[in-house]
Q: What sequence folds into this?
């Protein structure tokens, strides 16, 4: 099976990315509605039942609404980062389907993907520190360094440079008679 062009593996992966992109947008909308609902319900805390459970966290007390909303906002930001990554990957795969892997725009797209991954990882560290401060160790958000993520960031940055060099060589070849 071919890797590039219409009907190739690239076009199949592009369809998967398109579906995932839509699912991410739906998730962002759902979490945003959840934030609004929690904030509105925080004006009548008895409607929340005295506590909210998000994943493994049980949030209770006078700051129930704002803490739950902030937690959901963090999830929304993470989803937004995933949308940025998937969106750039979709555009890269569009160029692969068109048979133009060394399109100059792919360099910038890969750099954005690498930067977004780094920002998401740094955001995870910030969320771990913040949860430790707010929950005093009762909630555990893993703040350990993930070498796999940082390795992926470095690989993507190197690939961006490979694509930049490929685009440069292609540009030079087009000028050759």
A:
């Amino acid at each position: 099976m071919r890797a590039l062009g219409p009907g190739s593996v690239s076009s199949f992966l592009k369809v998967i990315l398109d579906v995932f992109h839509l699912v991410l947008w739906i998730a962002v909308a759902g979490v945003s509605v959840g934030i609004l609902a929690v904030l509105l319900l925080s004006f009548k805390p008895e409607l929340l039942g005295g506590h909210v459970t998000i994943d493994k966290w049980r949030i209770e007390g006078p700051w129930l609404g704002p803490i739950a909303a902030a937690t959901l906002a963090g999830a929304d930001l993470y989803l937004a980062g995933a949308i940025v990554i998937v969106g750039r990957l979709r555009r890269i795969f569009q160029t692969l389907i068109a048979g133009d892997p060394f399109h100059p725009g792919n360099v910038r797209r890969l750099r954005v993907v690498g930067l977004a991954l780094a920002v998401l990882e740094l955001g995870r560290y910030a969320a771990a520190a913040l949860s430790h401060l707010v929950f005093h160790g009762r909630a555990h958000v893993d703040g350990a360094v993930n070498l796999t993520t940082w390795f992926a960031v470095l690989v993507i940055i190197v690939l961006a440079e490979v694509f930049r060099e490929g685009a440069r060589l292609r540009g030079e070849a087009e000028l050759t008679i």
In short: The two ends are 33 Å apart (CA to CA).
